[in-house]
From TrEMBL:
Residues 14-208 form the Phospholipase/carboxylesterase/thioesterase domain. Belongs to the AB hydrolase superfamily. AB hydrolase 2 family. This is Phospholipase. It comes from the Bacteria.
């Protein structure tokens, strides 16, 4: 089974970590693509450690980068099987990082972009101990038909998507938002007019507020505060 690793930053306080934020990159990237989010979010969460693991496979659609699963065959069942396989090394990595830091599973937050968003939702909603929060940027909810039978917890979820995304259509997040609501998951969505496949400052700020709320430095997600 693949052993995951990637860049780490924090805590900004210099003291022991009290939270862990894991950043999951998209197709054809690696952990370095998202670890810089720790610079901004870490100022608001000075006791959080951040890690951005490289996905377990070399990208099969480019001569560089990593992938959580192949996207060459995009039939839903094939993609779901790929996510299921990738969940095993990811869960093992999450457990190892929490153990290394001496933290409970409830001190974890998952944030992902594109394919990393898909993995954050797929793995996070099936963790034995639900994470404190899930942030999903420009992604989708895989295997929604299996969620009711497989969900193990309902952490607060923030979804952010650009309305001009031509890689993963914004309809994927609208569908995910509706499916999560049906499953009883507390979810909020932010749709960004004119934004293509990426994360803008408004999305970053929303993610920071979501993490602050999840870790108890602001009111709970979904309160509108």
């Amino acid at each position: 089974m693949a052993q995951l690793d990637g860049p780490r930053i924090g805590p900004a306080s210099g003291g022991p970590a009290k939270q862990l934020v894991v950043l999951l990159h998209g197709l054809g990237a690696d952990g370095r693509d998202l670890i810089d989010l720790a610079a901004g979010w870490g100022q608001a969460l000075p006791e959080a450690a951040f890690v951005a693991p490289d996905a377990p496979e070399a990208c099969d659609m480019a001569p560089y980068g990593r992938q959580w699963f192949s996207a060459q065959d995009r039939r839903p069942a094939v993609i779901a099987a790929g996510a299921m396989a990738a969940r095993l090394p990811l869960d093992r990595f999450l457990d190892a990082e929490l153990g290394r830091l001496g933290l409970p599973g409830s001190a974890l937050a998952l944030a992902g972009f594109s394919q990393g968003c898909m993995m954050a939702l797929y793995a996070g909603l099936r963790r034995a101990v639900p994470p404190a929060a899930i942030l999903g940027y420009s992604g989708a909810l895989l295997a929604p038909e299996a969620l009711a039978a497989e969900i193990t917890g309902r952490p607060p979820v923030l979804l952010v998507h650009g309305e001009a995304d031509d890689i993963v259509p914004v309809a994927a997040t609208r569908t995910a938002e509706a499916a999560l609501r049906r499953a009883g998951v507390p979810v909020e969505a932010l749709y960004r007019p004119g934004l293509a496949h990426g994360i803008d400052e408004a999305g970053l700020a929303a993610g920071r507020r979501w993490l602050e709320a999840a870790f108890g430095t602001r009111p709970e997600p979904g309160t509108g505060a």
